[in-house]
Design a protein that fits this description.
The complex is a heterotrimer of chains A (514), B (316) and C (290).
Chain A: H1 3-10, H2 12-15, E1 37-42, H3 51-54, H4 59-68, E2 73-75, E3 81-83, E4 86-91, E5 97-102, H5 116-127, E6 142-149, E7 152-157, H6 164-167, H7 180-186, E8 200-206, E9 210-215, E10 229-234, H8 238-247, E11 252-255, H9 260-268, E12 272-287, H10 297-305, H11 309-317, H12 346-356, E13 360-367, H13 370-385, E14 388-395, H14 399-405, E15 411-416, H15 423-430, H16 444-455, H17 459-476, E16 479-492, E17 495-496, E18 512-513
Parallel strand pairs in A: 1-10, 1-11, 13-14
Antiparallel strand pairs in A: 2-3, 4-5, 5-7, 6-7, 8-9, 9-10, 11-16, 12-15, 12-16, 17-18
Helix pairs in contact in A: 10-12, 15-16, 16-17
Chain B: H1 2-29, H2 34-39, H3 45-55, H4 61-73, H5 87-122, H6 127-139, H7 144-158, H8 174-208, H9 211-218, H10 223-231, H11 236-251, H12 255-261, H13 266-275, H14 279-307
Helix pairs in contact in B: 1-14, 5-6, 5-8, 5-11, 5-14, 6-8, 7-8, 7-12, 8-11, 11-14, 12-13, 13-14
Chain C: H1 3-7, H2 16-19, H3 24-43, H4 79-115, H5 117-132, H6 135-146, H7 150-176, H8 180-187, H9 192-228, H10 240-247, H11 256-283
Helix pairs in contact in C: 3-4, 3-11, 4-5, 4-7, 4-9, 4-11, 5-7, 6-7, 7-9, 8-9, 9-10, 9-11, 10-11
Classes of the chains: A alpha+beta (514), B mainly alpha (316), C mainly alpha (290).
Chain lengths: 514, 316, 290
Amino acid sequence: MTKIAAAARKHAPIFLAAVFAVLPLAEPAQAQKSGGSITVGQELEIAGFDPLKVGVYDTSTFTAAAAIFDTLTTLDEKGEAAPKLAVSWTHSDDYMSWTFKLREGVKFHDGTPFNAQAFKENFDRQKDPANKCRCAFYITNVKEVLAPDEYTLVYKLTDPSVNLPAVITIQSQNNAIHSPTAWKTKGDDYNRNPVGTGPYVLKSWTAGDRMVLEKNPSYWDKGRPYLDRIILKPLPDAQSRFASLQSGEADIIWDDENDADNIMKAQKDSKLTVHTYKGSGAQVYAFNTKVAPFDDVRVRQALVMAIDRPKMSQAITNGLSRPASNPYGDGSWVKCKDDGALPFDVEKAKALIKEYGKPVEFKMLVTATPRGRMVGQVLQQFWKRVGANMEIEQVDQATIPSRAFTRQFQMTPWRIVDLADPDPQMYANFRSGSPLALAGFSNPELDRLLDHARVTADIGQRTEDYCAISRLINKEAIWFWTFQNTYYALSSAKLKGFPKMYNGVIDVSRTWLE
Amino acid sequence: MLNFVVRRLLAMLPVLLAVSLLTFLIASLLPGDLALVILGDQATPENVAALRRDMGLDQPLWWRYLSWLGHVLQGDLGRSYRTGQTVLQAVAERIPVSLQLMLMAEFIGLLIGVPVAIACAARAGDAFDRFMTGSAFAMLSMPSFLVAILLIYLFAVELHWLPATGYVPFTEEPLGNLRFFVLPALTLALAEWPGIMRVLRSDMIATLQEDYIALAKAKGLKPARILFVHALKPSSLTLVTVTGINIGRLLGGTLIVESIFALPGIGRLLVGAIYTRDLVILQGVVLLVASGFVIVNFIVDMLYAVLDPRIRHGHA
Amino acid sequence: MATLELSIRDEATPTPVRRKRKLGLLFWIASGWLAIILALAILAPVLPLQNPVDMDMLERRAAFSSEHWLGTDGLGRDELARLIFGARTSLTVGLIAPMIGLTLGGALGLLAGYFRGRFETLVVGSMDVLLAFPPLIFALAVTAYLGQSVPNLTLILGVLGIPAFMRVARAATLTLARREFVIAAEALGASHARILLRELLPNVVLPLLAFFLLGVAVTIVVEGALSFLGLGVPPPMASWGSMIGEGRDSLDVAPRLAFLPAAGLFVTVLAFNLVGDTLRALTDPRQGAL
């Protein structure tokens, strides 16, 4: 083993999204009880599970996927990669190849045996250019997957990945393992009749209403799961979602900090438990630096300096939102002494706008939701105070990605989600030439740092790279960050064993009722 | 009569055709290239071009309309690109909810509206009448999104009488199903009864002026009997119309009520289709709903003709 | 938009019972309220009000005080100023949109009712098409295409109101066209234009105007529903509907934020109704069935 590898191993724990749970989470030592049924109130309606059809899973789909499917690895309470369908793993010295030993004797719900071949078929199907899967974007760094024997799986990467087992833990479109027999026989209907190896089996699903998941009696992890039944329901309206929790129709609901009044009410209610998870990443915004007035760095800097984040947090979330000064956040292992954040300075901002000389007028894309409108109005107000005129352009969620990819915007909201490693998102968002490099900004130094950070195994070195990247982006103000990611779920106090919400996923597959 | 039915049926055809054209045009107006939405980050120019070709998006608009219409006429409304469901499957899953919601809302609306209307008509012009007509109108000014959440707080959170959100099919749990529908139906009914009440009230006031009512009074019939039998009956025509119009309107779904009470109805399906640019679903469902409206109107016309023979022979 | 439908037949109300009634105190109170609201809405920019979009982010949902007479809203904006500017928006949309319906729908209905035949079939048919299309989907799609602004919103609501006005005008025309004075004018060789403008229009206008007042009320409410769905007036502009929608999120913390605009809406709609009813009773157009 090389020195780099040794260093990486030594630092492995901090590699993985460091997490801080506000409330004490259920300890495994507690007595688990089997039986019972719970209802989960989600924000969105689930479209389906076939990656070829839906492309990317949303948070609501993640919850269902966590129950129906298994992944190779999972994150334990400490944030480290732990075995699931893979029991052990090793890597090549250059981190370009990872070999996983798979669990034996696991079967999909339809009886198809789970093995390396089944996994490879999942992967190849997503990767096949003929399938034009949106999901392929997230596995561009994997050249191929090999199945040398029935229970051995080899990932061949295009770039070194020192952290692969932790990166592939999310129950996403790419990592959930589907039964190849099922998608082949069901065709178009597979999307809504998913088959995995997970602890729960899809029993019935009424579109827009409920998805009933029943305990998988032959689950490989003996003794689990505990609950007999999980019911997932989309409850789109935040107020009635909370009312459903209060009145007992739902046992756990998805929430976010914009619903601060209800979160605070739940904190005071002894019958309810508030689960929070402070993830890495942030709510971010991109300037289109190719168009006026954002082709001038002074305007961009001025707008960033005009934002008073603590005050904004008060205004929109009763102070629950945690201000962000870099794209990584406190939940990430990247800790910077100096991230180069621009200070909040109204006078300086005014001066910069004045220096620019021309009137600063622009449109910002905002999602047509109460939350989008609120944030939009607050930013508008900050910018008005330094002499910049922002007009809110409300668009529906579906329009934002297509506007962003075609660069038809001046300023757009975006999100850096909670992942175990910053590389996938930072590289996609800032490397020149990437379709997601929304700012249209290219800088050789930035590219060099991004390239270097992804192939370096030494954690100290990578941290330095990422901090330098943050300083560069903050100085050029091509993107800016408002708040760090904090994820919320509110549940009945009877629900126990709820794990940390990595990536904001409400995973109830391991919970039980007291 | 047969002649009349055939004439009315034929008149429906151009309306349906125009509805299909409008549906198609409006769906095509939506900004955001469908191929871009579907491909997302995979939207390389080659992929976009290929997908546009596959979906026929590179064809001129009129050609796309005709080919869509051709498929529709063969009973093929298409499949959602996102869920893989056919339009008919999607509608079949949702329509029972919308139908039930609409029927219950109408029922409650009539339950409140008819007695109030009769009471008001009986003493038209007095303080009670003026108060009720006024407040009925003011009820219209209460937005359903406010009424809904107030009802939830009162009946679900405070009193625990009724569930806040959710749905079970009637076939699974008849009683539970009704419980889930009470609050959403009541929310809608609170906006429906003023209309029913005002229309019926004015109709009955007119009827009460008629000679035969005076005759009935002269014959010494009880006031209640006059009101309910002699005056209410002729007004049933009006009720049929109003109810018909409401039913047709609610068919298109009631997005706000469906979202707040988490009912899986047509409204949420349609708006979801707009947000995800699921044009196949959007066009197909709007066409079905609009056809439903036209058909309900047709049925109302027929009922009218049955109830009032004068109409069959052309008006005036 | 849909509720317009409900109220059409309302216009058939012959209210002979009320005909003898005097205008009464209520009428004057209602008119007074409308006059005040209208004056405030028109004069809003010149009144000594605080800026309705300026936020004091640390003074959210502040209680009534001498600085903020009606407190502040969820983002620390002066509630009184927002209510008055909200009235301005709501009344602008609420008055202009029905005018579009009144003008276009009224003209179509008048012509259809007078000329009958193919033209009438065409007009009635196209209105059926418009009615059959789910109004919310129409509003969503057109807003997405045209962009969100007060003129666009007004236009959409106006178009959605056309069928209802058309029905009222056509029904009134149908009955009037059989009256003696029209037949007499025809016999005297008056031109179509003359009969339409001189004989029919003045008589059709009355029921249309009464219906217009209903339209105003309904439009204000519908604008609120659209605001709730993010399709109403663009923020940070206030409208009563959007204020109720925003206030709904803090019902138990600061219920006044939802109930103040709701009360404003309630009283105004009530006042429009009272005035409309009284005026109708006075003029008593006595139309036939629609």
